[in-house]
Amino acid sequence: MFRRLNKLFSILIMLFMVFAVNASFSFAYYSNYPVNNPTETELKNLTYEVFVWNSDQGYWSVSNLSGTAYLADGLQVWEFAPYSDDNDKLYSNKVAISDDFTDSWDALVAVVGDISVNCGYRNGFHNAAVGGVQYSQHKAGVAVDMTTPSGYTASVFATKASNAGFVDAHVISGTNSVHADAREQTGYPTIYTNTGSGLYVFTLEDALICNDYSPILTGFYGSIDIDEVEDFQQDNGLTIDGIVGSNTWDELTD
């Protein structure tokens, strides 16, 4: 009971602090999503909340951007948003991306020209709906699936992506498309109670939301997130320590 009351108090404090800094910050998360059958015009006209991870400085920048704003050379927000062409749904107006990804993207565009995106960022609901792998780098905002540009074979395009700095680039089996990502590591890292800001903290918060818990979606692992993780661990028979290791990740992303 005490932990629950303490959590409520912490949430109220956090809400006050965030609203004081940025009154436009949205806490609706995914309550109005998914949006079914959006037109391209609607996707372009929507305002998105874009989280950009600065890997060198170790912080997130957050901006409200139109769908036609550019994240990188030739890459508009709406193209990278969690929209599934397979089932024609937009799963959220939240978009995560990293500067390591955009650096590699820009280097690739400089070589091959315009690139058509099949899939960029996915939240947990989107990833599950399209049958994405459990530890998908799409959920961290560092992966993209692309149609091979005219004049290249898929294998050559994948090599170009690797040369541009993408950590993993390969032809998607049975297609003319290439997956490329700027992952920080294979799988997801352990998140400790003193981790603070981190690329995969955003992925963790999204996973908690997808499991009906209530973190604050900021990319910073603070007291509210830790309490939510501990509640999740307690509810799932895990060690209650607020540390997100392989066992907690497995349960969260299953």
Query: Kindly state the mean pLDDT as a whole number?
Result: 90
Order of helices and strands: HEHEEEEHEEEHEHEHEEEHEHH
Shape: globular
CATH topology of the largest domain: Muramoyl-pentapeptide Carboxypeptidase, domain 2
**Record field, number of beta strands:** 14
Rg, nearest Å: 18 Å
Order of strands across the main sheet: 9-10-12-11
Q: Helical content, roughly?
A: 25-40%
Taken together, the total number of domains comes to: 2
Termini Cα gap: 29 Å
Helix-strand category: alpha+beta
> Poorly predicted ranges (pLDDT <50, ≥5 residues)?
8-28
Portion in strands: 15-25%
Q: So how many helices?
A: 9
How would you sum up the major sheet?
A: 4 strands, antiparallel
Corresponding CATH architecture of the largest domain: 2-Layer Sandwich
Explain this structure to me?
With 254 residues, the chain is α+β, with helices and mostly antiparallel strands. It folds into two domains: 35-181, Muramoyl-pentapeptide Carboxypeptidase, domain 2 (2-Layer Sandwich), CATH 3.30.1380; 188-253, Muramoyl-pentapeptide Carboxypeptidase, domain 1. It has nine helices and 14 strands. The strands form five sheets. A four-stranded antiparallel beta sheet has the order 9-10-12-11. A three-stranded antiparallel beta sheet has the order 1-7-6. The chain has a three-stranded mixed beta sheet with strand order 3-2-8. 37% of the residues are buried. Residues 8-28 have low confidence and may be disordered.
